[in-house]
Amino acid sequence: MELWLREIESDDLHIGIRVSRVLHRERSRYQDIAIVDTPGLGRMLVLDGIVQTTVKDEFAYHEMIVHVPLMSHPSPRRVLVIGGGDGGTVRELVKHVSVERVDLVEIDERVVALCREYLPELSASFDDPRVNIIIGDGIEHVSNVRGEYDVVIVDSSDPVGPAVGLFREEFYRSVYRALDDDGLMVAQTESPFGTPQLVRDVAAAVGRAFPPHAYLYLANVPVYSLGDWSFTIGSKGPDPRTPRLPEGASLPFATRYYTLEVHRAAFALPRYVQELLDLA
Known about the structure:
The protein is an alpha/beta fold. It contains nine helices and 13 strands. The protein has two domains: 3-53, Spermidine Synthase, Chain: A, domain 2 (Roll); 58-276, Vaccinia Virus protein VP39 (Rossmann fold, 3-Layer(aba) Sandwich). The mean pLDDT is 93.
């Protein structure tokens, strides 16, 4: 008998992934959590039936949500991550020697605990002395700080359940206030092909919260298989389309997806995305 994970994208589209073994499954206070092994994508974290990350392709997502904002900021020292309980974003952050403090605010402590146990490739940097794990509500945390962070990364799950509020303009305005004068924020903002109205609404909301620098950029994350995956970035100071290192420079850390050339190219949007954003 074969076991398949069926991820429901819409009433008309389901994606199937063959599962070799279910390592753990439970219902936490907030969501259904599963850790599974798959022949094609390796170990996988699934929340409420939606694939969050796999060990085979997670590098594309985590490198692009981290290195684009951090390579745009002149000296990123204090970083807030909202969500990101798998640890991949933190792992990429601590590659930056300028980073002195990372606050990770994750609402579901079981996600952190299970990823520590089952996904060490992602979660090992939780033990870095610069990392402070806070189990709590990211929206509430952001609303209580002013000028505290150089970079805020919203590494959320899809806009259902506890993550809904992370896609609203009120939240982005709170993030603006939580940043210092040169601060940047970035959020994962779903698929422009699969959820075009959401992408459009979020880009507009970030644009209103972060004048004049708010942009959408793209990466290809194979497991998110409805085409391009979007990130929306807002900056109070530097233009995030231009990394601080000059063209031709070498990165001071190892990557598998991110390069300075990819950084610049990620902001060159396909025509259908330009039209979605009324940029064409």
